[in-house]
Amino acid sequence: METSTDRAAAALRRLRANQSATRPDARRDRADDLAERVEHLEAALEGLQDAVYRQDVVHDRQIADLRKRRVIGPNAGSPGPRGQLP
């Protein structure tokens, strides 16, 4: 599976290989285009990291709520399996 980092590295290699064949202005334009694409990918990655963090916080809250319900729920003092207390 090719990652965005792999694609960026391949694009940089192609850019460097073509530098001798292109005029200086065209190289600068291609480098600027590549830099913009990398910035876009970095922004997308940061957004994804934020979303994962927010979801993790939600899950932590849900787990904490479930644990509270388990401790103070209606069956908190009832015997466990085979009539034993937990």
Structural features, described:
With 86 residues, this protein is mainly α. The protein has one domain. It has helices spanning 4-18, 24-72.
Q: What's the total count of β strands? A: 0
Low-confidence parts, pLDDT < 50 over ≥5 residues? none
Shape: rod-shaped
| Total domains | 1
Distance from N terminus to C terminus (CA atoms, Å) equals: 48 Å
Question: Helical stretch count?
Answer: 2
Q: Structural class of the helices, strands and pairings?
A: mainly alpha
Could you tell me the strand content as a percent range?
Answer: under 5%
Q: Main β-sheet: number of strands, strand sense, barrel status? A: none
Radius of gyration: 27 Å
Helix content: over 70%
Overall average pLDDT = 80
What is the succession of H and E elements? HH
Structure summarized in a few sentences:
With 86 residues, the chain is mainly alpha-helical. The protein has one domain (4-71). Helices cover 74% and strands 0% of the residues.
SSE topology:
Layout: H1 4-18, H2 24-72
Helix pairs in contact: 1-2
Task: List its traits.
86 residues; 2 helices; mainly alpha
